[in-house]
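Query structure, 589 tokens:
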């Protein structure tokens, strides 16, 4: 899940440009970082444990026009300075960084140890370095050695390396890689946003391709080593200096951006929705897929497709969907949701699905992603950059898109856009009313003292309560357990005792009675009920009032849940925008 960055150009302070790039990539991993620059004296590296520091950290770097950098999310080997990337070749002729996991690294390592290599780190990355060295003994050029070594690696990997001869190579098989151009200045990175401030043109490196930068940028196919022509595309992402705009954290800023995102969806053209609606109607089976919060969004989209669109849609979780692959046929349709469009778990399923000839539709926030490229129907969330590692506005964008899609299938596109416009205004009114924030902060004070938090929902609110649980787990590091209210009596009821907090999301629809029954069942056992609902009820211990937006009410209920997680994390003094151990763009399995 790491971020990789490289600069090759006319500025002799390559290290500071690389550090600046890495800072923009640290949503991808922030347990350690490292930079390697090359000049006529050789390669100089600096590696540190912790978040990427300020520019003064690199003031001691020698002058150099070329280098690579890495921000790590450890998969193999603890978070230590020796395990941070880049890793040196034995003779220091190159330094290498990796994004991914070498799945066969143990076997390769055993072989390399037998061949006499001594490992200085516990990473799979160092294995790649020595595999290249071994290949170099057989091949004439480093380029050929990299190509042949790369083919020996199993798993989804992207590597980047800088040589003492001032060349940069990067090869991709899974984790993202883009090249940015600004005159003679070249940038290589895991995403476009990190160099959007400088680069005017870009080139997305596809899986199975390698780039060599040596004066100019050359592109090769890894399979046969053949050079291929390429066309640069303009950089379309706005590089608008991502700032907190006076908010304390990106999380709260991004929650406040939700109404704008929804309003934009409410102004959508019908045609793209119609195109997909028709394909869905024709499909034999319809699946939705995502991971983490997006997996929950995928479940909510499937819910709307079933309840509003009357389509038999099934939602899958990225990490567990490979077992479905043998069931996919060319008559099926798979809708993939992703913030980054690079989620490894989902991509793995999409690749298998593609082999079966399935039709793929995707809804992605980051433009130019591999997921978008491999899709037959491509949709962009256009929610703008989401800097907080936890998804908030992008989750709302995915769910609202799915709702509108379901409405389109039903022939109610116009009413769908109207509902979303009302929802946007309603959420805006909720967010700007200070009383709501004060009330949620009070409830956060109660929850701060609890270890376990339960969340109940039904039908349209069930997945949203699951998302509330994810936010609480991510932001507050507290145990959360969300379930459909009706399942309570089957097992979770054993845990209901005095003082246990139960958050209930109540839509103003036919599910209300069942939720009130569940509330009575948990209260009888002493649980404290926090209800998010349109109307007050004496059975609530705490009441979070929201407006009744009917069909879209789940999306309304989501907002106080997100805010509650935020205020809880704030009270606990947690790292809100970068919660411990997780990264935003999960490009490893
Ligand atoms: N496998 C490498 C490591 O553990 C890279 C991890 C990643 O890309 O997330 O250092």
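Result returned for the query:
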């Amino acid at each position: 899940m790491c971020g990789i960055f490289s600069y090759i150009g006319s500025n002799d302070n390559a290290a500071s440009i690389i550090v600046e790039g890495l800072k923009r990539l640290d949503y991808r991993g922030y347990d350690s970082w490292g930079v390697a620059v090359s000049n006529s004296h050789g390669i100089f590296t600096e590696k540190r444990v912790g978040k990427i520091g300020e520019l003064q950290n690199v003031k001691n770097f020698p002058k150099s026009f070329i280098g690579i950098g890495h921000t790590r999310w450890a998969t193999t080997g603890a978070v230590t300075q020796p395990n941070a990337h880049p890793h040196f070749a034995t003779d220091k002729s190159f330094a290498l960084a990796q994004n991914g996991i070498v799945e066969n690294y143990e076997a390769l390592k055993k072989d390399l140890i037998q061949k006499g290599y001594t490992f200085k780190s516990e990473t799979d990355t160092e294995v790649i370095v020595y595999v290249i060295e071994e290949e170099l003994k057989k091949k004439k050029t480093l380029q050929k050695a990299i190509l042949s070594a790369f083919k020996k690696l199993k798993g989804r990997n992207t590597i980047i390396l800088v040589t003492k001869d001032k060349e940069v190579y990067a090869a991709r098989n899974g984790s993202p890689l883009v090249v940015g151009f600004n005159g003679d200045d070249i940038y290589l990175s895991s995403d476009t946003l990190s160099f959007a401030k400088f680069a005017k043109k870009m080139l997305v490196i596809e899986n199975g391709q390698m780039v060599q930068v040596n004066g100019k940028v050359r592109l090769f196919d890894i399979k046969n080593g053949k050079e291929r022509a390429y066309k640069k595309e303009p950089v379309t992402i706005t590089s608008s200096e991502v700032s907190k705009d006076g908010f304390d954290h990106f999380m709260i800023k991004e929650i406040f951006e939700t109404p704008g995102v929804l309003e934009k969806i409410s102004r959508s053209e019908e045609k793209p929705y119609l195109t997909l609606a028709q394909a869905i109607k024709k499909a034999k089976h319809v699946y939705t897929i995502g991971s983490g919060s997006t997996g929950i969004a995928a479940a909510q989209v499937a819910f709307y497709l079933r309840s509003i669109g009357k389509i038999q849609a099934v939602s899958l979780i990225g990490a567990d969907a490979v077992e479905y692959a043998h069931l996919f046929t060319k008559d099926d349709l798979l809708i993939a949701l992703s913030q980054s469009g690079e989620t490894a778990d989902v991509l793995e399923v999409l690749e298998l699905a593609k082999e079966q000839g399935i039709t793929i539709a995707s809804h992605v926030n980051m433009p130019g992603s591999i997921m978008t490229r491999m899709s037959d129907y491509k949709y962009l969330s256009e929610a703008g950059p989401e800097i907080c590692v936890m998804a908030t506005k992008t989750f709302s964008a995915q769910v609202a898109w799915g709702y509108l899609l379901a409405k389109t299938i039903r022939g109610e596109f116009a009413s769908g856009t109207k509902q979303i416009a009302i929802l946007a205004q309603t959420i805006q009114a909720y967010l700007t009313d200070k009383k709501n924030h004060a009330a949620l902060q009070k409830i956060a004070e109660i929850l701060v003292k609890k270890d376990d938090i339960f969340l109940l929902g039904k039908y349209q609110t069930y997945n949203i309560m699951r998302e509330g649980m994810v936010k609480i787990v991510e932001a507050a590091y507290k145990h959360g357990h969300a379930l459909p209210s009706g399942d309570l009596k089957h097992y979770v009821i054993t845990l209901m005792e005095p003082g246990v907090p139960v958050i209930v999301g109540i839509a103003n629809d036919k599910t209300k009675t069942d939720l009130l029954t569940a509330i009575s069942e948990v209260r009888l056992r002493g649980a404290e009920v926090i209800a998010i609902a349109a109307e007050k009820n004496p059975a609530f211990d705490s009441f979070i009032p929201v407006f009744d937006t009917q069909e879209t009410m789940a999306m309304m209920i989501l907002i106080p849940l997100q805010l509650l997680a935020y205020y809880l994390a704030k009270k606990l003094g947690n790292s809100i925008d970068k919660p411990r151990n997780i990264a935003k763009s999960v490009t490893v399995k």
